[in-house]
Amino acid sequence: MIMKRLIYFLGPLLLAIVAVFLLNKWLGGFETPGYVLIGIAGWSMETSLVVFAISLIIGFYVFYNFFRFMGWLVQLPSRYKSRGKRIKFNRSQEALIAGLVDSAEGNFEKAEKVLIKHASHSGAPLLHYLTAARAAQSRGAFEKRDEYLKKAADKAPGSDLAVGLTQAELSLSGNQFDQALQTLTKLHSIDPTHASVLRLLHQSYQSLGDWESIRKLIPTLNKNKVMMEAEIKLLEAEAFSNLLKQAAERGDAQEVQTLWSDIPSYIKRMQGLSAIYFAAMINAGAGAKVEEELTKLLSVNWDETLLVLFGSVQSEDVAKQFAVAEKWLGLHPKDAILLNVLGKLGLKCNEQQKAEDYLSQSINIEPTVQAYQLLGDVLFARNEKDKACECYKYGLELASSEIVSQIDAVS
Question: 86-156 domain in CATH 1.25.40?
Answer without folding.
Answer: yes
